[in-house]
Structure formats: structure tokens, C-alpha cells
């Protein structure tokens, strides 16, 4: 099946039409249900109900369409994807469609038997979140008693089943001083990779800024630690690190650039250019129940809104770094500047940069208030 469609709305870069490539990766948010209540949850403030979720057959059709249009990597995510009873069936269908399958999970809801079934179904990789290096802190951050012990068991079962494991450690003011211990834990658990990513402050995390914003000292200490640990543990574990945005000089290329590499599907089938795109009110989101995935990718209003450079403010359009960061994060610009087409306020050239820094500094120095946990 040829899933390529002709683009009627040309995308331009420096005044010349450019070809939109097929997406490389797809994030399938199978459900918004989740047993944890992390205070930095990246799911939207309004969660989609279980009744609205795509059926097994609908998801399988989406996977087949994705593969046909050139997607290589499928991230099975949520919420907690293990909350879906058909997770093994979905994994098998995705593998049969030729997709590399990665399960992004808190581990809650997985048993030794289910992990063995996932392995038999062709699961290629498992990414397990940890919230801290001690049961007390991890369970406090996740808002789930007994979560830490369960995660250790899941990591051991995953390793025993021969599924490559990545440990995902979201870091913030209250657990950054445990990064070294979390790294040691990941090595002990047999992980081949650890992702140390600082909390992003949009969505739910914005309610917890004073509880989560790391201080400059923590940021500098973590940078130095990661640099040293990468050398020390070369060949043992790969360390991916995303530092705190407000201490960076330039923004990162969020999503590898809008509508360039990745596609997100919500539990009810809405197709988004990134997980937070629904915070931008001017965008229109198509649904896989109404339109073919390839048509949405190439033709959809939301995908074309920030492709190329013609939407950029002059500051970015004339900047030599636009090839590197594509103007940064649209959702961050929306959250901080009230305009998704503004220069990302993280950028040192943005007029809002000083305000961003002042707010972040004040939040980082504040005595941490109790968490506002993610509501279920
Ligand atoms: Fe990136 Fe725009 Fe800043 Fe240049 S001005 S570094 S393109 S955000
Ligand atoms: Fe949406 Fe960065 S989170 S573009």
C-alpha cells in the first residue's frame, strides 16, 4: 500500500518549497489511565475516558498505516499502557506490521508472566520509569505506595526475559541529589541506557513549579556528574541527559522540529504533532477514526501550522541556529508568551528570557510546598 499523499499546501524554507519527510517514530498513548499520580505528569490536564479509547482493531489499523507510511519506531505509552488488557495483542500486531516496539511503562500492572508474553509477542525494548533511588522518595514522588519494589521486580523480569531495558529518571529539585544512586541502580538492574531528563514545566508540572524547579547549583552539579559518569561508565551504560531548560542558552529542537520526525496519537485517536500540542488553541486535530494517518501527517492543519520557516518571527527566521533548533518548542512559547509562534522564551535572544529566568530562580529557591498530585 502506498501511503504517500500529495501535499497541497507547500511547506517553505527560505522561500523555497521543501519535501516533508515521513515520520520516523510514533507515540501511541494507548490510555490515559494510570495508577501513579506524578506531580509532573505530561498528559493533558483533561484526560480522555476509557470509553473514548480506540478499540484493539482500531489501534492495529493505525499501526499498519504507520508502518506503510514509513514509521520505524513505535512507542507504546500512556498513561500506563499496561492498563490495557490487550497490550500483548497490540504488541504482537505492531511487531507483525514491522515496527520496532518500545514499551514506556511505570511497571505497575506488569507481572512476570505478562512480560514473558510481551517478549514472545515481539517486544523489542522496555523503558521503565523510576522516581527516586530509595523506596521512600520514589513512592512519595509517584504517589503510589509499594511502587519502587514493584519496579525493581519488573526490571529483573525484563532482564531475565532478555528484553533490552532503559531506565527513565525524571529529575527535579527533590530527587536531583539522588542522580548518582539512580544511575547505580540502573546499572545494577542491567539497563543498557538511562534517560535523565529534567522536568518540563508545562501541563501538570506547572502546578508544582516551586516543589520541582531545580536550583542552579543542582543543575551545575548534575552536569558535572553526568560528564564524569559518561567517561567512567563508557561501554557499560549509555547516559542520555536533558538539562533544565531555563539554564540553557538556546532551546532544544523539540520533537526534532514540528511535524518533521514524530507523530502522537491520543487514546481516542486524535493525531498530534507533540504530546502537549492541545495547549495551542488555534490548532485543529484530525482523528484516525475520520482520516487516513498519512493524509493527516502531510495535509493536517495542525501539522502544517509550524512546518518550514514561514511561520517564524523575524528573530528566528534570520537566525543561523534555526537549522539546529527549528525555533524551539511551540508549546513552551504558548505557555510563556501566550503565542505559539513566538520565539521560544528559553532562547537567550528572546525578549522574555529574563522573565523566564527570574521566575525559575524564585521557584528554585522556594521551600518546596507539598505536591499537587496528578488527579485520576
Ligand atoms: Fe533558535 Fe530562534 Fe533563538 Fe535562533 S532566535 S536560537 S532560531 S529560538
Ligand atoms: Fe509541543 Fe515542544 S512540547 S513543541
TrEMBL record:
Its EC number is 1.21.98.4. Its cofactor is [4Fe-4S] cluster. One of its GO terms (molecular function) is cyclase activity. PROSITE patterns: RADICAL_SAM. InterPro entries: 4Fe4S-binding_SPASM_dom, Aldolase_TIM, Elp3/MiaA/NifB-like_rSAM, PQQ_synth_PqqE_bac, PqqE-like, Radical_SAM_PqqE_MftC-like, rSAM, rSAM_sf. It catalyses: [PQQ precursor protein] + S-adenosyl-L-methionine = E-Y cross-linked-[PQQ precursor protein] + 5'-deoxyadenosine + L-methionine + H(+). Keywords: 4Fe-4S, Iron, Iron-sulfur, Metal-binding, Oxidoreductase, PQQ biosynthesis, S-adenosyl-L-methionine. This is PqqA peptide cyclase. It comes from Neorhizobium alkalisoli. The gene is pqqE.
Amino acid at each position: 500500500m502506498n501511503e504517500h499523499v500529495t501535499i497541497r499546501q507547500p511547506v517553505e524554507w527560505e522561500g523555497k518549497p521543501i519535501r516533508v519527510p515521513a515520520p520516523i517514530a510514533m507515540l501511541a498513548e494507548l490510555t490515559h489511565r494510570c495508577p501513579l499520580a506524578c506531580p509532573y505528569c505530561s498528559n493533558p490536564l483533561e484526560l480522555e475516558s476509557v470509553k473514548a479509547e480506540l478499540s484493539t482493531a482500531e489501534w492495529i489499523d493505525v499501526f499498519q498505516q504507520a508502518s506503510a507510511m514509513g514509521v520505524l519506531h513505535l512507542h507504546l505509552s500512556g498513561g500506563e499502557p499496561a492498563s490495557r488488557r490487550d497490550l500483548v495483542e497490540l504488541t504482537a500486531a505492531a511487531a507483525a506490521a514491522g515496527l520496532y516496539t518500545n514499551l514506556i511503562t511505570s511497571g505497575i500492572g506488569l507481572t512476570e508472566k505478562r512480560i514473558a508474553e510481551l517478549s514472545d509477542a515481539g517486544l523489542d525494548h522496555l523503558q521503565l520509569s523510576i522516581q527516586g533511588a530509595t523506596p521512600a522518595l520514589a513512592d512519595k514522588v509517584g504517589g503510589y505506595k509499594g511502587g519502587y519494589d514493584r519496579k525493581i521486580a519488573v526490571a529483573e523480569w525484563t532482564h531475565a526475559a532478555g528484553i533490552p531495558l532503559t531506565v527513565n529518571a525524571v529529575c527535579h529539585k527533590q530527587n536531583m541529589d539522588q542522580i548518582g544512586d539512580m544511575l547505580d541502580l540502573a546499572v545494577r538492574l542491567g539497563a543498557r541506557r538511562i534517560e535523565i531528563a529534567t522536568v518540563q514545566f508545562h501541563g501538570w508540572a506547572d502546578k508544582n513549579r516551586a516543589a520541582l524547579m531545580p536550583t542552579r547549583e543542582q543543575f551545575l552539579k548534575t552536569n558535572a556528574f553526568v560528564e564524569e559518569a559518561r567517561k567512567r561508565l563508557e561501554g557499560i551504560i549509555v547516559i542520555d541527559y536533558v538539562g533544565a531548560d531555563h539554564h540553557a542558552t538556546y532551546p532544544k529542537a523539540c520533537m526534532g522540529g514540528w511535524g518533521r520526525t514524530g507523530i502522537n496519537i491520543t487514546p481516542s485517536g486524535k493525531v498530534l504533532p507533540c504530546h502537549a500540542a492541545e495547549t495551542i488553541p488555534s490548532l485543529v486535530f484530525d482523528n484516525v477514526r475520520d482520516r487516513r494517518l498519512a493524509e493527516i501527517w502531510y495535509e493536517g492543519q495542525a501539522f502544517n501550522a509550524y512546518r518550514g520557516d514561514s511561520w517564524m518571527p523575524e528573530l528566528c527566521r534570520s537566525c543561523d541556529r534555526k537549522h539546529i533548533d527549528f525555533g524551539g518548542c511551540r508549546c513552551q512559547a504558548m505557555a510563556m508568551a501566550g503565542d505559539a509562534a513566538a520565539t521560544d522564551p528559553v532562547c537567550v535572544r528572546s525578549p522574555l528570557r529574563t522573565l523566564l529566568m527570574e521566575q525559575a530562580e524564585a521557584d528554585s529557591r522556594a521551600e518546596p510546598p507539598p505536591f499537587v498530585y496528578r488527579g485520576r
